[in-house]
Structure formats: C-alpha cells, structure tokens
C-alpha cells in the first residue's frame, strides 16, 4: 500500500468514527433573528385594555421576544385597571420599554413610568395625573395619597425625580420654573428632556430600535380581535346607556301590546349586547346576567300576579343591581340607569305615537266608540221592574230564570233558595241585575 493510499484509509476511518458524534451534536446554526413586540396602549385605560395587554404579553413571551415596546397614547382612565396593568409590566419576564408617541396623561403617565425605561417622541406630553371621580370631582385624600405614593414609587424605580411625578398629582407641589402652585404639572417632551425625566427623545419605532441596538430585529404587533374592538365600543358609557334605554323601551312596549316577536327580540338583543360587552371586557361576571334575568322575570310576574308591588320592587332592584355591577363604578352605574330610564320613556311614548298610525294599534285598543250610529244598543235599565210580581221558572240557587211581565229574564234571589214555580217579587235592580224574593216574604 502506497503512502498516499494509507493516508486516505486513515481519513475514511476517522470520518466513520466521528459521524455518530456529528449526528448527535450538530454544528451550531446561525443565530436566530431577534424579535421585538410593539403593543399599543391607546384609548381609555380600563379592564378591556388590561385583558388585551395580558394576551399581548403572553404572545410576546411565547415567541421568545427580546423586548416589549409599549406605544402610549392615552388620556388616562381607571386607577384600578392602571394598577393591574402596572403589575403586569413589573411581573413581565421580558424587558418593557415605554414610548410616549402622543399623550401619556393621568393613568397613562403612570403606565409610562411603570416600564423599565421611558422615551418620548417629539410633540408628546406627559403628566396631569390628578385622580378624579367619575362625576369629575377631585378624589378624596385617601385615594389621592395612595395614588401619589404609587406615582413616586414607579418614578424612583426608573431612576427619575419622584417630586416631578408628585407634582403631576397635586397642585400644591411646585417644580420651580416649570409649573405654578395652582396648576398640575404636565411636561412637554423638551421639558422632560431638560429635567432628565425621559430616557431620550426618539421620533419613530425604527429610531427607538436603532437606539436600543435592535435595528435588525423582527418587529411584531398584536392586533386587537374584532371581539375586543366590539367590547370596547359597547362598554363606552354613551353606547351602553343607549343599549339599556332601547332594551327597556322595547320590553315595555312588548308587555303593553302583547307583541313579543319583534319588540321582545329587540329587547333581547339590546340587553345581550350590553351585558355581553361588559362581560367580555372584564367589567362584569356572568352572575350579573343571572341577577338581571331574575329581575326581568319578577317584573313580568308583577304584570300577572297581584303582589301590592312587592314583586315589582324586587324585580326593579335586581335589574338596577345588575346594571350597577356591570358599570365602571357605582356612581356611573346609577347615572346610566337613570339616563336609560329617561331614554326608555321617550322611546316608549314615540313608539306608541307611531303605532297609532298603523293597523297594529287597532289590535291593541278599541279603535271605535260604541255609539248608536254604529249600531250599538246599550242594555236597558230594569229599575221599572221593582215591585213587579213574577214566577220562578227555574230554581234560584241564587241565580236562575223568572218570568216577569211576560218576559223571561235572568234574576238572582236575595239569598234565599227559591224552588221553581214559586211566585217572586222584584225588590231591587242594579243595572241589568234583577234581585227577587218569594212573594209575601218580608225583607231582612
């Protein structure tokens, strides 16, 4: 064997020996592309936003994303929802970056500061975070103090001045050369940059990714589902109140006319949209539907079973409770019910007015008066028969038939059993009702 052939044999043997190891331990592949999720935080901060963000964060974690970027544009919303979203951000297994695109006001400022870092785009603002009740009045001191503490806490976590965040909550806290004692602090992007209250000013998501060293990353988004869009629309106070009003009006018309096919269906759809939207948005549980249906059943029972109003009051209370529990808070729930009642009354009156112009109305109420020119003959007054004597044709127990002045008439005894063939005398009449007693018997 030549020297060259000998080397070739050695190479083949080595290759055969290494082949199993190559199969078990394959060569490293090219590094996977980095993935970044951009998630919009827009509109009112509420339970429906929380549900959407929970789904979006889960998708980002499942995809093994490097970073989540929250694109913020919100006027604020519910403190309760903001607290839960802030906890979601803190508990995330992925780095969360906030990019204020336009507005981060009130609860929106809190969410922007809850991220690990917060960047702002040119033209954006942040602040005006004083908590208020649903009626527009300032919150009580207890709520104000808790909210201020949370704002300070998330700001300190980002390494920024907590006094600036506190000035966004309380008018009494003043930042020199920035705001006055009678105003809430709201910072423009330039003011935030001058006060080191932002980690940078970057216009687009592309600019932000380049700044973070993620220029080549794959950018993914989490679109809202049609159901999420619908739920957010249906839970808007104006839309929800109109749905309640339409449902109440349709139910009242159905009970008044007895026509449940159309108006009953309208009521069912309106109530289904109201409660379905609130349940999907996370504002209510399925128990509210049970309470509401129980209330409707009680109201229907009141129409057929005399209860001196007890059943009706119970049904009304159940309906009110279901609506209030579905609202953002008790105050808003009560206002929705009152406005919905007013809307229902207006719609009911308009519907009755329109029904009068249709053939349906003649099936609900008597259309024509019972007058003589239409052939109506009123029953005769039998008062002239008092004192007349007749003969019982049938036994009176106490009602029966007697012949009086040659006519067979329906009579009733004054309480005494009268056998057939006994002479009777008319003692009184009540319209068409003729009362008799045996002739010769004295009245009691």
Explain this structure:
The strands form 2 sheets. Strands 1, 2, 3, 4, 5, 6 and 7 form a 7-stranded mixed sheet that branches. The chain is rod-shaped. The protein contains 15 helices and 12 strands. With 444 residues, the protein is α/β, with parallel strands linked by helices.
Please give the structural blueprint:
Layout: H1 3-24, E1 35-42, H2 47-62, E2 67-74, H3 79-91, E3 96-105, H4 107-114, E4 117-120, E5 125-127, H5 141-157, H6 162-169, E6 186-188, H7 189-194, H8 205-211, E7 218-221, H9 226-234, H10 237-257, H11 262-280, H12 287-304, H13 310-326, H14 330-355, H15 360-364, E8 389-392, E9 399-404, E10 407-413, E11 423-430, E12 433-438
Helix pairs in contact: 2-3, 3-4, 5-6, 9-11, 10-11, 10-14, 12-13, 13-14
Short description:
The protein is α/β, with parallel strands linked by helices. The protein has 15 helices and twelve strands.
């Amino acid at each position: 064997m030549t020297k060259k052939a000998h080397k070739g044999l050695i190479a083949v043997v080595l290759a055969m020996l290494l082949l199993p190891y190559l199969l078990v331990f394959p060569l490293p592949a090219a590094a996977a592309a980095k993935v970044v999720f951009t998630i919009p935080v827009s509109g009112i901060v509420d339970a429906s936003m929380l549900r959407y963000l929970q789904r979006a964060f889960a998708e980002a974690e499942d995809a093994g994303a490097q970073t989540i970027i929250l694109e913020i544009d919100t006027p604020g919303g519910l403190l309760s929802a903001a607290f839960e979203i802030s906890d979601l951000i803190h508990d995330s297994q992925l780095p969360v970056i906030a990019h204020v695109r336009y507005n981060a006001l009130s609860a929106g400022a809190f969410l922007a500061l809850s991220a690990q870092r917060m960047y702002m785009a040119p033209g954006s603002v942040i602040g005006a975070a004083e908590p208020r009740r649903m009626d527009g009045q300032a919150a009580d001191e207890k709520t104000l103090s808790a909210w201020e503490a949370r704002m300070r806490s998330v700001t300190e976590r980002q390494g920024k001045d907590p006094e600036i965040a506190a000035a966004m909550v309380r008018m009494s806290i003043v930042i020199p050369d920035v705001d006055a004692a009678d105003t809430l602090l709201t910072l423009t992007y330039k003011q935030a940059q001058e006060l080191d209250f932002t980690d940078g000013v970057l216009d687009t998501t592309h600019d932000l990714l380049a700044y973070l060293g993620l220029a080549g990353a794959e950018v993914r988004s989490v679109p809202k589902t049609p159901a999420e869009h619908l739920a957010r629309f249906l839970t808007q106070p104006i839309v929800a109140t109109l749905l309640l009003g339409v449902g109440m009006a349709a139910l009242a018309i159905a009970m008044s006319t007895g026509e449940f096919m159309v108006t009953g269906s309208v009521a069912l759809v309106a109530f289904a949209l109201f409660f379905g939207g609130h349940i999907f948005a996370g504002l209510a549980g399925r128990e509210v539907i049970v309470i509401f249906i129980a209330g409707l059943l009680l109201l229907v029972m009141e129409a057929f079973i005399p209860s001196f109003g007890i059943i009706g009051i119970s049904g009304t209370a159940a309906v009110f409770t279901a609506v209030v529990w579905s609202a953002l808070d008790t105050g808003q729930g009560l206002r929705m019910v009152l406005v919905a009642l007013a809307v229902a009354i207006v719609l009911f009156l308009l519907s009755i007015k329109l029904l009068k112009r249709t053939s349906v109305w003649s099936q609900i109420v008597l259309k024509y008066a019972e007058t003589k020119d239409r052939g109506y003959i009123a029953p005769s007054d039998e008062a002239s028969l008092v004192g007349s004597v007749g003969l019982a044709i049938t036994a009176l127990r106490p009602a029966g038939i007697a012949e009086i002045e040659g006519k067979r008439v329906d009579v009733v005894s004054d309480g005494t059993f009268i056998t057939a063939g006994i002479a009777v005398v008319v003692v009184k009449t009540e319209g068409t009702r003729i009362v008799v007693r045996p002739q010769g018997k004295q009245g009691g």
